[in-house]
Amino acid sequence: MTGKSDSAIIAGFGRGLGESTAEALVRDGLKVGLLARSSENLDRIAAPHGGNFLPVPADVTDPEAVEAAVEKVEQTLGPIKCAIFNAKQFLKGSILDFPPGEFERAWRVGAFGGFVFGQAVAKRMVAREEGTIIFTGATASLRGNPTSYGFSSPKFALRSVAQSMARELGPRGIHVTHVILDGAIEGPKHPATGNDAQFKPEELAEVYLHLHKQPRSTWTHELDVRPWCEKF
Amino acid sequence: MTGKSDSAIIAGFGRGLGESTAEALVRDGLKVGLLARSSENLDRIAAPHGGNFLPVPADVTDPEAVEAAVEKVEQTLGPIKCAIFNAKQFLKGSILDFPPGEFERAWRVGAFGGFVFGQAVAKRMVAREEGTIIFTGATASLRGNPTSYGFSSPKFALRSVAQSMARELGPRGIHVTHVILDGAIEGPKHPATGNDAQFKPEELAEVYLHLHKQPRSTWTHELDVRPWCEKF
Amino acid sequence: MTGKSDSAIIAGFGRGLGESTAEALVRDGLKVGLLARSSENLDRIAAPHGGNFLPVPADVTDPEAVEAAVEKVEQTLGPIKCAIFNAKQFLKGSILDFPPGEFERAWRVGAFGGFVFGQAVAKRMVAREEGTIIFTGATASLRGNPTSYGFSSPKFALRSVAQSMARELGPRGIHVTHVILDGAIEGPKHPATGNDAQFKPEELAEVYLHLHKQPRSTWTHELDVRPWCEKF
Amino acid sequence: MTGKSDSAIIAGFGRGLGESTAEALVRDGLKVGLLARSSENLDRIAAPHGGNFLPVPADVTDPEAVEAAVEKVEQTLGPIKCAIFNAKQFLKGSILDFPPGEFERAWRVGAFGGFVFGQAVAKRMVAREEGTIIFTGATASLRGNPTSYGFSSPKFALRSVAQSMARELGPRGIHVTHVILDGAIEGPKHPATGNDAQFKPEELAEVYLHLHKQPRSTWTHELDVRPWCEKF
Question: How many domains would you assign to chain C?
């Protein structure tokens, strides 16, 4: 109940990458705010972690809700030193019948959400001239495939936001980075294959932690990550 | 009054690039539908061109309006063989106070509009296995600069749509191409400098016409264009 | 026998792309110097074209021979307005047993040759503040595939030279451009398939001619070209 | 004199990045072979490090010398688990008078050397299905600037080799990675500025070590690194 520690916040939090990254940040001394839409889900995941995890249910597409969630994390856990944006939709289809509303929804979650979240944490970090903001991208951030209107287009848009923020905020002491995941993450949807052909969440979390801990003389803005046998 | 010719349609039509491109397409034998929001503006530009230009006022961010405009061009002028998307917003600002609503507006005009327009023309072209769709990009399509949240992010998103459409529709006979303009277009905002340091609309129009006329054994998907002395 | 016209020069000249491009340049009013190693081959191709083609046999990897060939074209045919570099080797193999000498040979023809040729023509064009230099690239200019040490590495190196030359010489009036060919060229090695699935040399030549004729307000530095059904 | 440990090898070794990386690898349990041309220089740097550093003077442009040096490291220090290639020349100048021999020399050290070195270590690693190969690139690996013929062109060529090797050898258990350094390294040429505006060798070394230690489910092929205030 005494002092506040420093904190982190993860948007688009879920089991797998989100949970493993949060655990890695806790091991590094941070308390972690978990931002996602379903409060039930967040509570279930956070429960075993006691005071280290703080669920802040919010819709990442709602600027006021995101602002409130970020403020709550700062007030409750302390200044945010590391913010991670993972939210995305994954919609596929032909241009011939892709519903415009779905195209919009994918952008709203995956790109607008990143802008809104990035803005909310950047405003606070800039005042302290310190902090890391990590955006999660994908191979689709670099290449528009035949049916990827609902995934690639938001990922391109998000990558642009990450670049602009890095160029604007780097000289103000904020490390903005963009991780291109090229592979599937082991989990319920992608059961372990036994040959490391998929990302292990706890190993991927080490990449995020490494980026957060890079000293300011040596910042990475963009890197790709893939399992050894992934074709690229 | 008799037979219909083939047609073209330009979205985000205005004086300068739009007008010059439309004139080039007319010289090549097409009648041209002009799509933009302001009907007054369209009427004034179209008037001197008689039956060759058809104003179809519509908001490019409204799928039903775009569908109706595209249908009207096909019914009135004949099958669309060439569709050009120029619409954009150009908003600059810091991430620290960039209004989310402006970020959304820029995407809605520059990226969602391109998706909606591309979809409306692609559906018709695919049935005929023929047609050219040209998206206008910018240097900001490739690089997110410090204050370009409201320009670069939609341009990245649009480029992804152009890539996905090219990969999906190329094998179905539709030529989808993405032009990266790196420079200013001569006009009221950028008066002629006398040394060709800016795009001349009528010369830029020749690039668009060349792309439209490329035979299917020799299609360009992406090219840049810049004045000779533009730094890059 | 009287006056000299303007001229062009094509290095890495052969049947197919080279011959078609030369014919297109002749139709545009230029006389064309043909640079390749085998004088016998050059003579046979040039013979039917009378005074419009001038064989200048030279090894593109030999700076003095290239300098002499370029000088001969200027003395005989007139100032070079357009220079095209097509030379390449195409070697594949595993890193585990790729002969270093072959790796070097591929670079010497495909990259060093481009540098040497580009230098020889640039020196002359700069004095006149006018001219076009076109380098032929490939998909391998952008992507290193598993066995492409002997093709992709020189193509990357050549692309860098083209970029540096464009940035140095553009402001001095020289148009430097890089064409990324993504597909096979119809010819003895790739017989016509009847469905335009390969480049037709005479249509590809139009792309080169279009680039040469771009006015200086509207220069393309890089573009890709591929047949309609080529996967990319 | 007893057992052999595992080893590493650094080509293009010098004070600064080379020395710091070697020290980091030693802390991680590897003995390190140092490959550079000047044996005197190598001896002086290695002396204080006792048996942990093994000078293997060799010219990286000489395939037989590189093969012998790599063999000596394996025989003396044990199987190479990590190989780093830093060698480069840095030559600037205009295309109008850039000596072809200098252009060749820059390629021979910076690209051919990387190919030769990569081949020598890859052959050994493949048999053991294990190992990391790191190539050091630069901003010039991605962009050809006006005077960078002698730096950018070899860096492009080297990047292609790194990509081809990653795609060929990844599925065989070898991690090939390409580090894009965008900034100056603190040292005699670039004295410390006191504000972390330059790479600190010992911090850069941590990036290399992190890459070497990535588990095979989570490999980075390419990343950039720059000081916080470096413009990009």
Answer: 1
* ipTM for this prediction: 0.96
* C-alpha R_g of chain A: 17
Q: Which tens digit of pLDDT belongs to each residue from C146-170?
A: 999 999 999 999 999 999 999 999 9
Q: What is the DSSP string of A139-180?
A: GGGT---TT-HHHHHHHHHHHHHHHHHHHHHGGGTEEEEEEE
Say which residues have a Cβ less than 8 Å from residue B167's Cβ, sequence separation at least 6.
A144, A145, A146, C231, C232
Give the CATH number, domain containing residue B212: 3.40.50.720
Domain assignment present for residue A230? The answer is no
B13 lies in which domain range? 7-225
Residue D77 CB partners (closer than 8 Å, separation 6+): D4, D5, D6, D7, D31, D32, D33, D54
In this complex, is the C-beta atom of A167 within 8 Å of any C-beta atom belonging to chain B? yes
Contact C217 B196 (CB under 8 A): yes
Task: Please report where in the chains the tokens 């409130």 appear, as a residue.
Answer: A68
Considering the domain boundaries, does residue D216 fall inside one?
yes
Residues of B in contact with C218 (CB under 8 A): 199-200, 203-204, 206-207, 225, 227
What stretches of D113-204 adopt beta strand conformation (E)?
131-138, 174-181
Question: Would B231 be classed as within a structural domain?
Answer: no
Smallest CA–CA distance, residue C203 to chain D, in Å, is 30
For residue B20, the tally of other CB atoms under 10 A from its CB is 21
Max CA distance (Å), chain B: 59
pLDDT at position D2 is 42
Question: Please, which chains are in contact with B (at least 3 CB pairs closer than 8 A)?
Answer: A, C
- For B97, counting Cβ atoms within 10 Å of its Cβ (0-12 exposed, 13-18 middle, 19+ buried), the class is exposed
In a domain, A231, yes or no: no
Q: What is the pLDDT of residue B13?
A: 87
Tell me how far apart the alpha carbons of residues B148 and B98 are, in angstroms, rounded to a whole number.
10
> What pLDDT digit, counting tens, does each position of D13-49 carry?
888 899 999 999 999 999 999 999 988 989 999 999 9
Least confident of C2-6, C97-101, C218-222, D136-140: C2-6
* Cβ atoms of residues A150 and A103 within 8 Å: yes
Residues 39-98 of C with CB under 8 A from B: none
Q: What is the DSSP letter of D184?
A: P
Element (H, E) at D102: helix D100-107
As a whole number of angstroms, the distance between CA A228 and CA A29 comes to 31
